[in-house]
Amino acid sequence: MKNTLIILSFILLYHIADAQTLTMDKVPRDVAHAFRAKYPAAQQETWQRAGENIFQVGFFNAKKAQIARFDNTGKWLATETDITNGQIPRPINQGIMKNFPGFDIQIISQVENPDGSLTYEAVLFKGRENYDATFSAKGEVLKKEAGQVNE
What we know:
Layout: H1 2-16, E1 20-22, H2 29-38, E2 43-51, E3 54-61, E4 64-71, E5 76-82, H3 90-99, E6 104-112, E7 118-126, E8 129-136, E9 141-146
């Protein structure tokens, strides 16, 4: 269990590494209040600025690594929850196999959207080739971006 939490911590840090870390006094009160109202049991919060008017917070909720995004007024935009390969729904696995044959999953997250829909974001790789891909709950590719090759 301890190893799982360490791995999830690294995954969480991977997702928010490019954003600017903020202290609580730099997080708008409405944003912090909206987060606390939505996730009252959240622990180990790490706040980031993810754009001019977007704030994101990485945290643990019921031992799950999550990232929630809010606009500067406190409106909730989405929440990502890291999942294991064993938790990937069948349509997503089929979509990955169909559209990215031979690729391995490096990281995958389930994304809860304000309209109640779920999408899935995955980092996929095969050799030196990698992609960031977003899938609908039916396994359809919604977005596909080539990633950078690490030398």
